[in-house]
Design a protein that fits this description.
The chain has about 300 residues and is of the alpha+beta class. Helices cover about 40% and strands about 15% of the residues. It contains ten helices and eleven strands. It has a five-stranded antiparallel β-sheet with strand order 1-8-3-6-10, covered by helices on one side. A four-stranded antiparallel β-sheet has the order 2-7-4-5. α2 runs antiparallel to α3 and α5 packs across α6. The longest helix is centred in the middle third of the chain and has 22 residues. The protein is globular, with a radius of gyration of 20 Å.
Amino acid sequence: MVTTYSESQDALDAREIRSRHESPHLHKSIEIVYVTEGTLELGVGMNLFHMEEGDLGIIFPNLIHHFQVFDTAECRAVHILAASLYLGPFTYLLNSTQPKDPVIRRKDLAPLVINTLLSLVAAFPKRHHRTLKGARELSLEQAPAGNEQITRQDLKTKSRLVELQAMLQLVLSRTLYLLTLEDRQDAAKYDIVYQVVNYIAQHFRENLTLTGMAKDLGVSPYALSRVFSSTFHRNFNRYLNEVRLDYACALLARTDEPVTEICLDAGFQSQQTFNRVFQDHYHMSPRQYRHLSELAGEE
């Protein structure tokens, strides 16, 4: 899901998209994946889990994960991304444990869960990137500053967010008990792969270099280069560009932000470089991608 690299504290996103390969990454938000068509391979850590149509996967916060698609037919899945703001009583559990197997099979899912997931997706317009800004003001108990009055629009927005939060927690309440949970190890202290993925997730919009990143992480550039070749099967520049492209695709498909601003916002130094990398990866221009996304409603 292309917005997974956003570390916004108020991120909430729900949509059905065409499944595709996504490189290893992590984020502070929980991600729920429900396969609606075809199959999907969900990788968490060093393990790969096969998902069939109707299966649901729950990816806990701060766990390295990736997606692969081996099916030759079109595959689609619902992806829900929600920051800790929306997790309520499940926040501690989701951050301190992890499932041995994150996939819940179709036969074990209650119809209410499926209907709620689809209702969450339906609640989001296709191009809503800016709609949920200000979600930190979720609490209806917060008093307005000074002499400000709560407007009807403010109340409507907050009420909608509370409703979405309730739907998300309903899904969690009907699914988490189906998973076998174990205490989470603090991988950040010793796992260089975790540190690499987390570092790039935090800094991909900056002017990154392998040498500078190695210095910040306290490892040699050679050791860091080996992580990319042996674990990610791609070099540093390619992995970084893929992260930036995923973020750019989210903005192209979900906002009206100009392409010139998107390329800089995603970390590319020039639009010429952005266009070249985009063309090489997707075999189309950024504007063509935006147009196709609008027509297909995939993003």
